[in-house]
Amino acid sequence: DLGYQPAAGNYEPAAPMGGARYHTVQKKDTLYSLARQYYGDAKKWRDIYEANRAELGDPNRIKVGQRLAIP
Fold first, then answer.
1. CA 44, 46, 50, 53 torsion: positive or negative?
2. Rounded to whole angstroms, how far apart are CA atoms 34 and 31?
3. Rounded CA gap, 44 and 20, in Å?
4. Whether the Cβ atoms of residue 29 and residue 38 lie closer than 8 Å to each other
5. Tens digits of per-residue pLDDT, 15-30?
6. Distance CA 28, CA 30 (A)
7. 56/25 Cα distance (integer angstroms)
């Protein structure tokens, strides 16, 4: 144990070996805001949408509590 404690938040760190990381949707989150948060580029919202297309219908209607893969 190196004494490392992850920061509190609503995200999980990237998985090893190229696996996806995840984000649990909070009030006021949008795919646009998540793309800005994780990629520094809001225009990459489609990457998140495509990774979660099976769970999402309308990209404008993500739900609080949904767990989204962040590729």
1. positive
2. 5
3. 16
4. no
5. 445 667 999 999 999 9
6. 6
7. 12
Q: What's the pTM? A: 0.72
- Distance in angstroms (rounded) separating the CA atoms of residues 27 and 14: 22
Enumerate residues 6+ apart whose C-beta is below 8 A from 54: none
**Largest separation between any pair of C-alpha atoms in the chain:** 43
Where residue 7 falls among pLDDT bands split at 50, 70, 90? very low
Residue 68 corresponds to which tokens in the numbers above?
């989204």
Cβ neighbours for 69, distance < 8 A, ≥ 6 positions apart: 20, 21, 22, 48, 51, 52
